[in-house]
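Many introductory courses stop at the sequence. We go one step further.
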Amino acid sequence: MQTESLVVSSPEALPSALSDLIPLPQPGRILLTSPLHFDVQYVINPHMAGHIGNVDRERAQYQWTQLHDAYVQLGLEVAVVPGVEGLPDMVFCANQTLPFVTRRGEQGIIVSRMYAPQRQPEVEHYVRYFTALGYRIQPLPPTLDKHFEGMGDALWHPGCALVWGGYGFRTDRGVYDYLADWFGVPIIPLYLHDPDFYHLDTCLAPLDEHTVLIYPGAFDEAGLALIHRVFPTVLEAPEDEARSLFACNAHCPDGTHVLIQQGCTHTNALLTQAGFVPVPLETSEFLKAGGSVFCMKLAHW
């Protein structure tokens, strides 16, 4: 199959049914990075402005521990990579890799190529971690002069081998041509145009195979058409909760429970009405750096 037929840019090019795609098991392992060195020391997204040196590290540690314990209580296997001094954003460990599992059960990661120079040294620490686990390590080819920020922008569709790929700020659109060819699975690229929603995981949270939580204002008409074509149920977070509380940076690890920033009252009502169980968590210190629940963890196989 040619790459052009795998990168889906219009509803007409979508697979006829998700059931026709390769089944993908739910990842049952969670990786976190300790927040000992978390801080706001520079501004690389709009949320950081005004917060340099304004992080309460003791409070951040408490909030991170609550997130850690929430995953443990849900029965997931949780591991921790130590944070590194001088890398204050390393706590957002969704960005440095994209985990995958092959049809033969081989586990691996695509290695990110970070956009911001301040974050580029983070990647080697995750490569080292996954190498020690025996995972396949797949870097982008040197000839592909593009940026890619892992699971911050590339999200596996729950239950099947389909990737949603955000681009426009941190990840280049051309990366998805390479990944579609390499994986041999469809990828749906979505253009992001609002700098507050600089990663796809800030404005789109797949909850299960049929349901997604989004902030619609982060997408253009073509992107919204693709989202509505694939997901029978599209929950729309209100702008204030999406922009200020990162409501769509939520994570549903088991198809039922949704870990989400505390205070997303309207979004939680939508989730409950749709049959999900919101698990409110306080991540206010991490919001100062432009991240919440989904940014702070990496789900892998």
